[in-house]
Write a structure and sequence with these properties.
CATH topology: Jelly Rolls
Number of strands: 15
Structural class: alpha+beta
Number of domains: 1
Helix content: 25-40%
CATH class: Mainly Beta
Strand content: 15-25%
Distance between the termini: 40 Å
Order of helices and strands: HHHEHEEEHHEEEEEEHEEEEEHH
CATH architecture: Sandwich
Number of helices: 9
CATH superfamily: q2cbj1_9rhob like domain
Oligomer: single chain
Radius of gyration: 18 Å
């Protein structure tokens, strides 16, 4: 059993700065207020050293030991994760393709006593995240493969420009790349009722007024992000080390399960739960992805 597995979450999380179990305290209210302002303004906020610095190396080692369980495949994709052979107008940003070489360790291959598993299922943590997003409640995904994953970007690979399927994404870097692997994003480049294809195309072409922002992240930092409306990527990783990050996905409604096509794309397999749920998904918007 690792040091992290043997520790309580109050020993792992810096609860002096982030008092998960005391949401009414002045410290918790101040953190939530700051996070809310930044999420409203740029769609992103970072809580530095959410995991105590003394345990960063142990966190890295625990997740690095799980990284070989990732499903790895190189695919040709567009920013919307839609069919790249679709008949789209010549100027449509969906016609721009990239090689997606990042990999995911699925939730059913992450041990329940791993720190990231315990944190994902921790009710005070989930309530704290909901408060930061200004939501009454968040639910774990019912999907047995997604919801919680470990993202692995190997040297020479990248996670190219894309939008998230979920509106609310929570992540934690667990291992920095030796070089590259920067998180870059264009906050609020689209809305629930406006794709703003011209703006997206300008970013992909490296022109126009919308220049991507680069977000400094360190292991143990907690990132809250509205990735549904913000175009973002992890830049190419170079050097000897892969980039590892835990992704905690939540939903405003219970019972959310990913589509068969998207699940197979990310994990190379589907389970009976995905087949049973296919066609029953209720979308919150009519965006492409």
């Amino acid at each position: 059993m690792s040091t992290l597995q043997a520790s309580t979450l109050d020993q792992v999380v810096d609860t002096h700065r982030y008092p998960l179990s005391d949401p009414g305290s002045p410290e918790a209210r101040a953190v939530v207020a700051r996070a809310g302002r930044e999420l409203a303004g740029t769609g992103c906020t970072v809580l530095p050293d959410f995991v105590r610095p003394s345990l960063h190396q142990v966190l890295r080692q625990e997740c690095a030991a799980l990284a070989p369980r990732a499903y790895f495949d190189v695919e040709t994709v567009n920013v919307y994760n839609t069919d790249v052979d679709a008949d789209l107008p010549g100027h449509h940003p969906g016609r721009r393709t990239f090689e997606r070489g990042n990999a995911f360790v699925a939730r059913d291959r992450l041990p329940g006593d791993a720190l990231i598993s315990r944190l994902y299922a921790h009710e005070p943590f989930r309530r704290f995240v909901a408060d930061c997003f200004g939501l009454p409640r968040l639910y774990e995904l019912a999907d047995p493969l997604s919801g919680l994953v470990l993202n692995v970007v190997r040297p020479g690979m990248e996670h190219p420009w894309h939008f998230d399927t979920n509106e609310y994404t929570v992540s934690m870097l667990t291992q920095e790349a030796q070089e590259g692997g920067s998180f870059e994003y264009c906050p609020n480049i689209r809305s629930a009722d406006d794709e703003r294809f011209d703006d997206v195309r300008d970013v992909l072409d490296g022109r126009g007024a919308r220049q991507p922002e680069r977000l400094p992240l360190r292991p143990g930092d907690l990132q809250l992000f509205k990735g549904r409306y913000s175009l973002h990527r992890v830049s190419p990783v170079r050097g000897a080390l892969a980039r590892h990050s835990a992704i905690f996905a939540y939903s405003e409604r219970p019972g959310v399960i990913g589509s068969v096509a998207r699940t197979r794309q990310l994990f190379g397999r589907v389970l009976p739960e995905h087949l049973a749920a296919e066609g029953r998904a209720v979308r919150g918007d009519q965006l492409l992805d």
